[in-house]
Amino acid sequence: MKYPLPHLFFALLILAGSFFLLRLPFYAQELVGEEGIIAHLFLNEVKKPDYLLLARIDGVNQMTAPQHPAPMYQAINGVGKVVRQLVPFGKLDPLESAFVLRVVFSLPLFLVLLSGVVYLYRCGNENLYYWLALLVGFASSPVLLVSSTELQLDASFGIGSFGLWALAVTALSGSLPARLYRHGAVLFLACFAAGLGKNEWSLVLCVTLFAGVAYAWFSARSRGAGGGAVAILLLGLFGLLAGNLFSYLDDPLNYVMGWQLMSSMSKHESIFNLAKLQQLLGVMGARWTYVAQALLLILCSSFLFLRARFAGGRMERWGAGLLFLGGLYYLSTWNEMVPFNIVSFLVPLAVLVFALILIAWLADGEGKAPLSAFSLVPALFSLLLFAAYFVSTWEGGPRYYAVAQIVSLFALVSVLRVQSVSAQRKLLVCVTLSLLVLHAVSWANRGRYQRVVVHTPDRQGNCLPVLSSGEAVFKKGDFLGSSCSREYLQQMSKKYNRPLCGP
């Protein structure tokens, strides 16, 4: 049955209620760490190329370049100008200001999910509430719950731009639209916006679009079809290049430094660095029995799946699924080895793979269509971006995986959407339930997701206090940012002839 329009508004009301209620505990937290830097960017006028607050000495703000493309910071500053006209931040205390800021920074994810519900309603709304359950379940993952309420660019500009890009690509999956140029223009604009973000995002998206073009071209040749998909993806690639060109022309210094920073991180803070790789292998060697047991579960599930796929029955199918989830559960409890961000991404990655397995089991050939290049592109982007951060040993928390996770949601949607209504309903129920189970497992070790506020003792005499920007942004006194290097702190102390506070 197709639902009338009032059901769409009811679904959006459920989405809004669940989205904001689940995030209330995260909204009501003080700013920590580097969040104060973004809060200062949001609440004050800044000039390029120095967008970020590094310290305050003798009442003068010491600013620095972010070493990332500037349009992201300009967008945050521009939105801040509008919000400052609506909210009297000067009359709010720091905790109230932090609450408002966290709500504002969570809105990009909410708008992406809202757009997704509207799109799925227009596609054919027989399974509207099943789709709604999937989107709400996905948005309640540890990565998206935590990162969407942080004052960080990954979970605000990143989720907003790449979430809408993934939705635009998903809208093209299934059958090729008749109005080629209109849809090509939409993808061009979506890729242009994505190209204004971090350099590594653009690099991964460029590789993904090239792969999509190649797949679409070979697929069209094998079926004797037209090259509409190739043309649309090429327009997207041109949009991405145009976005990067705009970033460079707008602020060459930060754009170039973004590539230099990415190169430095890959050399010194990843498993491509021999010392880091030896450290990783050493920990794995010390826990070899643990690794062997987890891998055994995964291998057994893979064997049963292959047996079920080609010659087996229903018991082998569900046995494979249970062992697969068991292996993921085992890995998710591995505290000493797997960092928080890797464990968290096991959830969407598992759901995406598990959904593909379930399609092979339950769809029974109903509504199956050849895999569209527009279904391949978001899935490939999500996995490649995850892999790029996976090989890094830099501890950045869940925000680094927020972009990959929101894109993986629409990769899942594009695969499920081409199924028949009945098969789609079965798959949505299974995937949503597996989501909830895996989220519960991830939250079992909830200490990993708590923000820690470290208060520095009050300064004594003329010393310079070393504070996190989250603690210092609403204060008027001098400070040095705790994210600064030790060499910089000592250099500033010597330059101004003021000792550092504390030990």
Labels describing this entry:
single chain; 503 residues; mainly alpha; 4-stranded mixed β-sheet; 4 strands; globular
Explain what the structure shows.
The protein is mostly helical and 503 residues long. The protein contains 20 helices and 4 strands. The chain has helices spanning 5-27, 35-43, 71-86, 94-123, 128-139, 142-147, 154-171, 180-194, 199-223, 228-250, 252-268, 274-286, 288-310, 314-332, 340-362, 373-390, 402-417, 421-444, 469-472, 486-495; strands at residues 52-57, 60-64, 466-467, 479-481. The chain has a 4-stranded mixed sheet. The longest helix is centred in the first third of the chain and has 30 residues, at 94-123. Residues 332-345, 360-369, 445-450 and 452-459 have low confidence and may be disordered.
The stretches of 5 or more residues where confidence is low (pLDDT under 50) are: 332-345, 360-369, 445-450, 452-459
Put simply, the count of helices is 20
What series of H and E elements makes up the topology? HHEEHHHHHHHHHHHHHHHHEHEH
The helix/strand class is: mainly alpha
End-to-end distance, in Å? 69 Å
* Order of neighbouring strands in the sheet with most strands: 2-1-4-3
* General form: globular
User: Helix content range of the residues, please?
Assistant: 55-70%
Mean pLDDT: 75
> Beta-sheet strand percentage?
under 5%
The total count of strands amounts to 4
Rg calculated over all Cα atoms = 24 Å
Report the major sheet: 4 strands, mixed
